[in-house]
Amino acid sequence: MLVAVTDHAAERYRQRVRGTLDARTEVASRVSRAWAAGGISREPPPGAAAQRGSVYVRDGDLVFVCLEDRPRGELVVVTLWEEGEGAAVPRRFTEALKRGERRRRPGD
Fold it and tell me: Among 3, 8, 16, 23, which residue has the least CB neighbours within 10 Å?
């Protein structure tokens, strides 16, 4: 399985894993290992919005949201999130960012 990583997913990984030198390579490696170990699901974890065609790859407390291109044998990591109480970026911060985006007006 060939694994590609979007800019967004690499940045989210950098926010959560300090001291990484090459986020894309680390994400691709982690996703490949978790995929090979069977850590995949087509059902979103509790509390996650379902996205048609998504594959969820779990490696420890990290859940990588991917899109699978079966004919080409490719997996594209589009984003990720952490579960658990020890998250590097707690959910309340990401939810506050979402609320702030909704309040902004065009042109502000």
Answer: 8
